[in-house]
Amino acid sequence: MAARRLDGKVALITGSDSGIGQATAVAFAREGADIVVTYLSDADGADQTRKAVEAEDRRAVVVQCDVSDERQVAAMFDQAVQTLGTLDILMNNAGVDASGSKVAELPTEVWDKAIRTNVYGYFFCCRRFAQLRTSAGGGGKIINVTSVHEDVPNAGGADYDCSKGAIRMLTRTLALELAPLKVNVNGLAPGMVLTPFNQAAIDDPKLLDEQVQSIPWKRAAEPAEIARLAVFLASSDADYVTGATYVMDGGLMRNLGQGA
Question: Is 160 a residue of the active site?
Answer without folding.
Answer: yes
